[in-house]
Amino acid sequence: MSVQDLTPHIQLNTRGLRCPEPVMMLHQAIRKSKTGDVVEVFATDNSTSWDIPKFCMHLGHELLLQEELLDANGLKEFHYLIQKG
């Protein structure tokens, strides 16, 4: 199964939020989910590009996808898929 075939159990829209809010929201979503569940995060804060991978590494979750996209206005946003370990 590819990453594109995964259906997230939880989707978080953290666009417009600044550090540490996106990671705090991810932590809360992970806490409420079951092992193996996938959380999808959309963010605009550049700090998520290092905060979310470190969060996953330190807490034993798998970062399935990390990508930079352009929104409809041509602004950079970040997209993540995290599987609870």
From TrEMBL:
Q: Which PROSITE patterns match?
A: UPF0033 (PS01148)
By its UniProt entry, which InterPro entries does this protein fall under? TusA-like, TusA-like_sf
Please give the Pfam families that the UniProt record associates with this protein. TusA
Residue ranges constituting the UPF0033 domain according to the UniProt record: 12-36
The protein's matches in Gene3D superfamilies, at most eight in alphabetical order, are given as: TusA-like domain
Q: Which domain of life is it from?
A: Bacteria
Check the record and name the PANTHER family matching this protein. SULFUR CARRIER PROTEIN TUSA, SULFUR CARRIER PROTEIN YEDF-RELATED
Tell me which family the UniProt entry assigns to this protein: Belongs to the sulfur carrier protein TusA family.
Descriptive protein name? tRNA 2-thiouridine synthesizing protein A
Organism, as annotated: Acinetobacter calcoaceticus
